[in-house]
Amino acid sequence: MKEILETQVMINAPAAAVWDVLSNFKAYPQWSPSVREFEGTPVEGKRTKVLLQQPGGTSIKMNPIFLKIEKEKELRWKGRLGISGIFDGEHYFILEEISAEQTRLIQGEIFSGILVPFLKKMIHGNTLAGFEAFNAAIKNRVEEQGL
Question: Which InterPro entries does its entry note (predicted)?
């Protein structure tokens, strides 16, 4: 079973400015309501622990592998709950430069595994709310820094 959750936000800043905030992993505790902390600096092809927090207080520390870190374009990782195939998530942030002063941030996750049908309410509830809160927070952070 697969389930895709995707959100987007328009940010009034160039892709480079959005990337600067998205890739400053040490600063996440200062502004991000849902991706709370990275232990170390993510490197493509390696695992880095990430603390995630959903609205309502549920938090989980994952140890995803970073699949893609492409400057000003994309950040992507894949994590799993327990063993592969139970509940896996491939999380991504894609930056689309609309103009020199506007960027679309697409945040999504491809959920797969045998638990997906049982967790759809959570995916489209707290997980979606967490994505939207993150999108609003990064928009605010980037646009404030541009002032």
Answer: Polyketide_cyclase/dehydratase (IPR019587), START-like_dom_sf (IPR023393)
The predicted model gives 104-131 an average pLDDT of 94
Short-list 91, 55, 69, CA closest to 25: 69
* Dihedrals phi, psi of 140, to nearest 5 degrees: -60, -45
Distance from C-alpha of 54 to C-alpha of 49, rounded to nearest angstrom: 16
Q: In the chain, what are the domain boundaries?
A: 2-145
The pLDDT assigned to 83 comes to: 82
Cα dist from 136 to 59, 130, 131, 140, 142, whole Å: 19, 10, 9, 6, 10
Instruction: Report whether CATH 3.30.530.20 matches the domain 2-145.
Output: yes
